[in-house]
Amino acid sequence: MKRLKKDKRAELVQQLIIHLVLIGLIFGMFFLATVGRTNSRIVKQQVLEKQIALLIDAAEPGISIDVPTVNRNGVIGNVVLSGGKVFVTVNGLSSTNGYPYFSKYDVDVIFREGEGDSAIDDKFVIGVVG
Amino acid sequence: MRNKRAAAGETILTIYRIVLISFIALVILGLSAVFYDYYIDVRDTEAIILTEEVVNCLVPKGVGKLDLKMLEADDSFDKNRILEYCGFDKEDGIGDRLYVKVIVINDAGKEIKTLQDGDSGLGWVKDLLEEGEVTKYRPGSFERDDFFEVIVIDEKGNEINGKLSVEVLVDHEF
After folding, report:
1. Are residues A30 and A50 in the same domain?
2. How far is A51 from chain B (nearest CA, A)?
3. Are residues A117 and A89 part of one domain?
4. What is the pTM of this model?
5. Interface confidence (ipTM) of the complex
6. What range does the domain containing A15 cover?
7. Would you call B20 helix, strand, or coil by DSSP?
8. Could you give the CA distance from residue B66 to residue A90 in angstroms, rounded to a whole number?
9. Cβ(A98)–Cβ(A78) under 8 Å?
């Protein structure tokens, strides 16, 4: 009888531990997702996209805008201009929404490798054509 | 000897609890994402840039004259499609979130002509959200009466001193 009671108590403790671990895992996952969302990568991406969009908006034909891949806002993986929007990949975080620009001129972007082996000299060149 | 039915019931209860906890965590995540989302607002700056573009389009570099007679004669000119006239093509969706209104005023302060384009409802949205906390959805704006002094050539061909009153609104990008 005593042994049966002990077994039941042990089973309850075991269940409780499993529950606590599962709850901890779920909250941990969501906490990480929240941190990922609010960390600086998204803010840096927003800064870069909006800076580039404003530069394009204000640019006259013939102007080219150099965006170094190693930027103070992080390492830029890609700059895409599509559907009137700027999409910038920063520190591996690709952009889903982008930011719209309203330039009346044709705008294109090319990747230009630097002379050295280092990626520091690599850049994206945004050209504004009349 | 474990009761198999009881064990199955316990498992179902555990699953139910996990689903409930996940739902609560999801709500917390959603709310925190909405309230702690950092938004950098550059729409006022966009409005200033667009104002410059439109004024430059009407009066190139601010040194020319605003020739209303020539504008009226231009086939591509439509006073309610000033953005298109100035080259902001709407095919790419550019201009969808913009509103421009230019009022040409003579030196007596009388309105000679009103040129506009875009969604005028943005002005209403701006007034509605002026006081509130929801800045993300309030359009960016640039508005200036008597902003720019110009020489206007009116429809009769007379040169008069005039002013441009400009209002530009830029909607959110969502």
Report:
1. no
2. 9
3. yes
4. 0.75
5. 0.75
6. 1-39
7. helix
8. 45
9. no
